[in-house]
Each structure stands twice: as C-alpha cells, then as structure tokens.
Amino acid sequence: MIKRGIVSSISPSQVSRYLREAALRPHKSRYWLNTTETDPVRFEEQVKAVCDTYMAAPRLEQSEGTHTVCVDEMTGLQALERIAPGKAMIAGKCALIEFEYERHGTLCLIGNFEVTTGELIRPTLGPTRTEEDFVRHIEQTVATDRDGSWVFVVDNLNIHCSESLVRTVARACGIPTDLGKKGVRGVLKSVASRQAFLSESSHRIRFVYLPKHSSWLNQIEVIFGVIMRKVIRRGSFTSVSDLRTKLLDFVMYFNRVFAKPFRWTYTGRPLMKAVA
After folding, report:
1. Strands 149-154, 205-209: parallel, antiparallel or unpaired by DSSP?
2. pTM, full prediction
3. Could you report the per-residue pLDDT of 133-167, keeping only the tens digit for each?
4. What DSSP string runs through the chain?
5. How far is CA 178 from CA 12, 133, 170, 171, 187, in A?
C-alpha cells in the first residue's frame, strides 16, 4: 500500500483490523479439487445419477427392501505407537500427544455407509486393497441379505469395475450372459463395457459410479474424516491387531451413538456455466 502510494504509512495492527472487518484470512488456506471434465453434459448426467440414487434410497428401501450403500477405501492406515503416553488437558492447555512414534505396519479399511440408516455395515480390514479384496468385500456385504437388492455408490477405481467383480455379480444375479473376453469382446472388453454392465438398473446388485475427481459426492468420505480425527490422529497402537480392534470398536460405537442418515440437499452444480 505504501509502494503504491495508497497511504504514506500504515501499521501491522491497522492491516489486521482491516482484514478482520473484511473477514479475510490470508494466513489460512484449504485444498480443493477443480473438476476438469472433458464432457460437461456427461458430468452432469453422472452427478444427477448419484444424487437421484440418494434421493430414491428411502423409497426403494420401503418398497423393495433395497440397500443403498456408499463404498470406498481408506488405505495406508498406520499403526503408530507413541513412545511416551499423552498428557491430559488442563485448564488453559490442550491435551498433549507425543510427537515421536514407532511404526508397526498398516491396514486398509474398506467401508460401507448405508444411506438410509447412517450406519457403517460389514467393514473389511486387511493389509491390501486388491481386486480380490474388493470382490470379497462385496460378497461379504451382500451375504448379510442374500435375497435383497443392493445399490453400491463407488468411484472409478479400476478394482470397482474389474473382470472378477463382473463375474461375481453375474453369478449372484443368475445372469447367464456370455461375458466375453477381457480386452477382446463382450461385457468384459473394456472399463466402459464393464461399468455399463455393473450399472444396469435391472440387476439385483448394481453400481452407481461417481464422476472422476468427485469423491466429495460419496457420503462415506464424511465418515472417513470422522474416523481419521477421532481414531487415527489421536491414537497410539501397539500393533496392527490393536489398530484393527480399535477401528472395529469405533464402528460399533459410531453405529450406537452417532449413526443417522444425511439430509442430502445437493442436486447438481451450484452454478451452471450458462448462469455463471
């Protein structure tokens, strides 16, 4: 301001007052992801499909017994043991957590968030997140209601539309279709053809895929944030087994105390390009 000749002099405290009055906080920042879809129309269709899935979940549960479940993975959860115990908060001071730690390994959590109840159902905890791990997770989830209908909301990770997942769904739904050969022909030919098969609305088990770079549309991401804040960051774990036990304990506690469905209000982009 001085260099530009706006004022002859100004104090740091005066600058702070101006910033406070304008509700500006230059010392803070947050990450965000700018979606760079190449086909805006396709993007809008996918967003609408996800939002419509959430809106229809209560009706489908009541009329058809359909389970609508958001699925995703938390990878690389570290079992860190603090080398000294933490210190409890006292008046005027927050709790203290030891900075140094010993590593004991990692876990991957594959979680399910049931849209209509807000509960975390049938989580899978293991060392890896492979195609086989995800298929096994879906099989274990469906096994909780073998005759029910299931809608899974997932992102575009390759294991969410794999050959083995297609075969598993076809077998579970009793679909006698010739699935073809991966990379050559038929349903298994490409990612697009596999996603189209897994998204088929007539199937008892089907998947709804998020647009790319739109994980914020997946309701389970909010719950993963809760797990990170309440379990992982404050935790001290003597082993991978200890981490697993505390995660499962928290899932039970969450379902008993906090579980409730989201009041979902988002239906599409806040500002369309034409309006903007």
Report:
1. parallel
2. 0.84
3. 999 999 999 999 998 999 999 999 999 999 999 99
4. -TTTTS-S---HHHHHHHHHHTT--TT----------S-HHHHHHHHHHHHHHHHHHHHHHHHH-EEEEEEEEEEEEEEEEESS--B--BTTB--B--S-EEEEEEEEEEEEEETTT--B-S-EEES---HHHHHHHHHHHHGGGTTSEEEEEE---GGGG-HHHHHHHHHHTT------BTTTBSTTSSHHHHHHHHT-TTSSEEEEEPPTT-GGG-THHHHHHHHIIIIITT---SSHHHHHHHHHHHHHHHHHHT---------S-SS-TTT-
5. 73, 25, 10, 12, 8
Instruction: Compute the distance between CA of residue 221 and CA of residue 235 in angstroms, rounded to an integer.
Output: 20
230-263: pLDDT as tens digits: 999 989 999 999 999 999 999 999 999 999 999 8
Cβ proximity of 218 and 70 under 8 Å:
yes
